[in-house]
Prior knowledge:
By secondary structure, the protein is of the alpha+beta class. It is built from 17 helices and 10 strands.
Amino acid sequence: MDPTYDPCRPEWRDDPYPLYRELREAAPVYWAPTTRAFCVSRYADVMFVLRSPEIFSSRAMFTFLMNQGYEGRPPLSWALLRFLAKLVWRTRLNPLEFTTARHLIAADGEQHTSLRSIVNRGFTPRRIAAWEARARELVAEAMVKLRSGAPFDLIGDLAIPLPVSIIAEMLGVETSRQSDFKRWSDTIVHMVTGPGRGNPLAPRTADTMIEVLAYLRQVVEDRKRRPTDDLVSAIVAEQDGESGLSVREVVQFVLLLLVAGNETTTNLIGNAVAALLDHPSELARVVADPALVPDVIEETLRYDPPIQMVFRTAMQDVEVAGTRIPKGAYVVPLLGSANRDERQFPDPDRFDVSRRPQGHVGFGFGKHFCLGASLARLEARVALEGLVPHLGQLESTSPRERVDSFLVRGPRRLELHRAA
Length: 420
């Protein structure tokens, strides 16, 4: 077992799966000294962590990812003070609320249930199904470019515009600013999960964060004055009463939906197409039988999930796989490893489009199961249904450059062209 393994370091990002296997065999609960976290790699143990929110708090999704490891306010510095002054001037948001505001992905118990109920109405089966026609329009537009023979980047020409357009329309924000939404999302992913946990106070990053917060603050204010039939208006409506959301909480709620609403689907589509191209015999099966497309999606979520890990905090001393985890420690359930655990999935390193992997954790599990899972599945299904008739005649010879993130996994570009 490599004693230098750390879940946040970039050395293993191209292909983390052989190392996951080592972890499962030699150190199923591995202490990563740099990150100071216990990495849990076996399926049964990952499920124990995800099923036990009373023992493993989701608060770490805020403290570890968004607050640079601090439970309270980070240490003051001139750079931080300059950022806060500019934040207040541009957005009129109270920066002191940042550490106390409620975050959907970092809440536990009744607080999480209450927050999730606010947006659940936008993700009912009926509402999600209603977006299929719009998804088909967007995919059809992308297929025109693909059929024309023009250079076609699966990510930039389809996997990004499809989910970004739909989540923007769901929220009721300007779809004409699609490039801004993706730029903001990329900045946040880099800042939170990029190499060296990007410096949030670097001028370019700080300016981008202020830009997106100022924009969303204006959207929230507009919906307060003129509510419409969109998700932002529904969230804004929850500002009434003692337990109502603050303006800051509404803004960060919308920001989470905007980022998560495109990152997961973009990388799911990219990973699915990459896996099919890397496994020509499986691609041939799908081309011959397009009814296998939903199975491709589930196998991709198992084989190469777009989210590789989540973070938890131990609320008490607990033992996992014979290892004592002390109260207050960070715990990292490795979703990508659990999905390749041979104890749960036979021959796990084989991509098999007819596997139908019941119980994979590609969208997490339990109370924090991905809110937008059904939307991501719909978007990925429509995208693959449009692509599959063409994939048998396409190839990708460009280098497989991946998103530079320890949390998010997917190709940054995937250029497709007619096979010679």
